[in-house]
Specification:
The structure holds four protein chains of four kinds. By secondary structure, chain A is mostly helical. Chain A has two helices and no strands. Classes of the chains: A mainly alpha, B mainly alpha, C mainly alpha, D alpha/beta. Chains in contact: A-C, B-C, B-D, C-D. The interface between A and C is large, with 35 and 44 residues.
């Protein structure tokens, strides 16, 4: 452990903005990508399910 | 071979009967080259410094302007189907299309470049190297561009897409083309740049017709 | 051996395999990230030249590596797809591209953040950064081309050719940009000076590289499952999948 | 001889046709019938090799077309919806360029004769742009008369032709059949040609 205090750690010897800006963007974007692929899968499942459903049931007459 | 020549001849004849397309690209080059001094200022020392880059980027954009049409007309009127069904290799026929494209959009730029270089007060030697670098480099642009044109054939928003695909691939041509002139101006000699440009042209001449032909077959499938 | 390989090359058998594999890669990736970050941020000593600012390399260098590795992987799948005409290859190619683009972007972003304190400018036309920028453009071109073509098979093939052409060009582009850079006497500060690096620094960087690699594989496997699902939706095995059945039941419930 | 077995075709998600098989021997013609959108044009493009084969086999003279494409293409003439004519060239220039692309040379005399056979005498040196729709089609059809291909694949050749032109085209095709040629064609109307005619009804 090379840091004396938490404040030291966050300051990164004056390079805090640059180091944390890099780490933040990297892990933030990776987290975002994970959310994104999860959402894409949910959407794919939904689309596929609806299409299969539509193919197997005859279109219902619509009532006003 | 006769098929190769027939396609070159046909494309040249067509272009001569519709001259405006060739003239537009050339005119574009002239206008772009004339706009830069207006934006940068008339200081000749500065202009000499930026001239190789500007003229090369101008040539790059001008040759790209006509890429979209390289296969589009043949695709629309069915000629491309007939080419794909020819017993001759499609790669050879595509090579003819690329040669025709260069003759119509690359060669005029090469011939015009020394004139435009004068506007930037380039020395005689630099003008020679500029012309030579364009002579070696513009075929490379047509060759690389052909792959992009074939890939985006019949695709929605193809023209914008084409520039996105092709411009990054033009980087080496730009670096060594403009670099040759700069090296000449700074007294380093341009032969290394020009050799590399020629070598890249040879590699592209082998690979590009093949890749373009494969892309065209994909485009024809739908 | 080959038979087994061809068996898993069919989307139908790859789908469940990818489903079993991605959590393993994700788990291992997370563990390695934690370890690598611990080493990098808490154990590795301060650099005598660059102070604490150098710690950016623990994400910058692995991200740059991955952006190149993924492009190579795409070219590999593209070659496979164009020679053997396997459907899975195109899908893998397309599943890899977004992750590659993200890593290329991260490499640029972290490179700029490193450059500001070291070079005094957010952007320097250094050979590596410039090549990375062009690689990023190549990714964007691939994604734009494949998403502009409606027919999935055609998009796969066209994308495959583009990926191959791009992969052939990447070394030429790097070489030309490097040449250009030396001619213009560009920045001479290097981000990683191998010899002067402490053992722990190198270790942390390699571990982070592995971690990102595993992450990329997990993402690609996860994404390819969605792609397979949509592509094969007219085939019976997709309709029989429990997750699809559950979704159908769910949709019916919502309707009534 | 052309033999086609177990062809199928999907466009996007839609299965157009499956398990299509037929053979065509010298002197025979085959009329491909079917409703609109059933995939007649797709089948013709598949047979020519413009679309990639997903299933089935196409053999020319008992050799697979996929493995010997040059041999097949040298014996193939295809006329699609698009006429493959350059509007700024004359019919004569078009024919000569087309022949060169197909790997043959055609003399001016031969080309003039072919154009005359389809009633285009006096139009040889006009740009195609100024010809009527029917004349353009006849120009494209005269390419067939010049072709030495054994197999003609024609997509709706009789469309947009008046009675005289239809007769002229029938004559050209009959001549081809008499010389042991083969013709695969689609047509909305009834077709009467010489030689042995087959018909194949395409359905989903």
């Amino acid at each position: 452990m090379i840091w004396n205090s938490a404040a030291d750690f966050w300051a990164m010897g004056g390079y805090g903005l640059y180091v944390w800006g890099s780490m933040g963007m990297t892990f933030g974007l990776m987290a975002l990508e994970m959310l994104w692929v999860k959402q894409a899968r949910a959407q794919a499942l939904k689309q596929v399910a609806l299409e299969i459903e539509a193919a197997q049931t005859p279109a219902k007459e619509w009532h006003s | 071979m006769s098929a190769f020549l027939a396609i070159v001849k046909r494309d040249l004849t067509l272009a001569l009967r519709r001259k405006n397309e060739v003239i537009t690209a050339v005119f574009f080059f002239v206008v772009v080259a004339a706009l830069f001094p207006l934006g940068i200022g008339p200081e000749l020392n500065t202009l000499r410094l930026v001239a190789p880059g500007i003229l090369w980027v101008g040539a790059l954009l001008a040759s790209m302007l006509s890429l979209g049409r390289m296969f589009a007309a043949d695709h629309a009127d069915g000629t491309l189907e007939q080419m794909a069904l020819s017993p001759n290799s499609l790669s050879v026929l595509v090579a003819a299309k690329i040669l025709a494209h260069w003759l119509l959009s690359g060669l005029p730029l090469v011939l015009l470049a020394p004139l435009l270089g004068l506007q930037f007060d380039l020395s005689t030697n630099a003008l020679w190297i500029l012309t030579l670098s364009l002579l070696l480099g513009t075929p490379l642009l047509s060759l690389i561009g052909a792959i992009g044109a074939a890939l985006t054939l019949g695709v929605r928003g193809g023209d914008v897409l084409l520039s996105l695909l092709v411009l990054p691939l033009y980087v080496p041509a730009l670096v060594f083309g403009a670099g040759a002139v700069e090296a000449e101006i700074s007294g380093l000699g341009a032969s290394a740049h020009l050799s590399i440009l020629a070598a890249m042209g040879l590699v592209a001449a082998v690979f590009s017709p093949w890749a373009s032909a494969a892309s065209l077959r994909i485009a024809l499938e739908s | 051996m080959f038979q087994k390989l061809f068996f898993y090359a069919s989307p139908q058998s790859f789908y469940p395999l990818a489903g079993r594999l991605w959590p393993l890669f994700a788990l291992a990736g997370t563990a390695l990230t934690a370890w690598g970050m611990w080493l990098g941020m808490f154990v590795a000593p301060t650099d005598f030249q660059q102070g604490e600012g150098y710690r950016i390399i623990f994400v910058h260098v692995p991200a740059s590596w991955m952006s190149m590795v993924i492009y190579l992987a795409m070219a590999f799948w593209a070659l496979l797809g164009l020679t053997f005409n396997t459907r899975l290859s195109g899908m893998m190619c397309r599943a890899l591209a977004p992750t590659g683009a993200i890593f290329a972007f991260l490499s640029l972003w972290t490179g700029a953040l490193w450059g500001k304190p070291m070079w005094g400018a957010w952007w320097v036309w250094d050979a590596r950064l410039t090549s990375e920028l062009i690689l990023f453009f190549l990714y964007l071109g691939y994604i734009a081309l494949t998403s502009a073509i409606d027919d999935a098979r055609r998009a796969d093939k066209a994308g495959g050719i583009l990926a191959l052409v791009g992969a052939l060009n990447v070394p030429i582009i790097y070489f030309s940009v490097k040449w250009w850079n030396t001619l213009h006497q560009g920045a001479s500060v290097s981000m990683t000076k191998g010899s002067s690096m402490a053992q722990t620094m190198l270790e942390a960087m390699l571990i982070m590289g592995m971690a990102f690699w595993l992450y990329a594989i997990a993402m690609a496997l996860y994404r390819v499952r969605s792609i397979i699902l949509v592509r094969e939706r007219h085939v019976q095995w997709v309709a029989d999948l429990p997750e699809v059945q559950a979704m159908r039941a769910h949709a019916l419930e919502a309707q009534s | 001889m052309l033999s086609v077995s177990h062809l199928s075709c999907t466009r996007g998600d839609k299965r157009l046709f499956s398990d299509v098989s037929f053979t065509l021997a010298p002197g025979q013609w085959l009329h491909l019938e079917g409703d609109n959108g059933v995939g007649k044009t797709s089948l013709l493009r598949l047979v020519c090799g413009l679309s990639a084969l997903e299933q089935g086999q196409i053999q020319w003279q008992n050799l697979s077309v996929v493995h010997n494409p040059e041999e097949f293409r040298a014996n193939l003439a295809y006329l699609g919806h698009q006429l493959a004519l350059k509007e700024d060239l004359t019919p004569l220039e078009n024919l000569q360029a087309d022949a060169a692309v197909a790997g043959r040379t055609v003399s001016v005399f031969e080309a003039m004769a072919a154009l005359a056979q389809l009633g285009l005498r006096g139009r040889e040196h006009l740009p195609v742009r100024v010809l009527s729709q029917g004349q353009k089609r006849r120009t494209a059809l005269s390419r067939l008369a010049l072709s030495h291909a054994k197999l003609w694949v024609l997509d709706e050749p009789f469309v947009a032709l008046d009675g005289a032109a239809q007769n002229a085209l029938s004559n050209v095709i009959n001549q081809h059949l008499n010389q042991q040629g083969m013709v695969l064609l689609t047509s909305h109307q009834a077709v009467s040609l010489q030689g042995q005619g087959l018909s194949y009804r395409l359905s989903a």
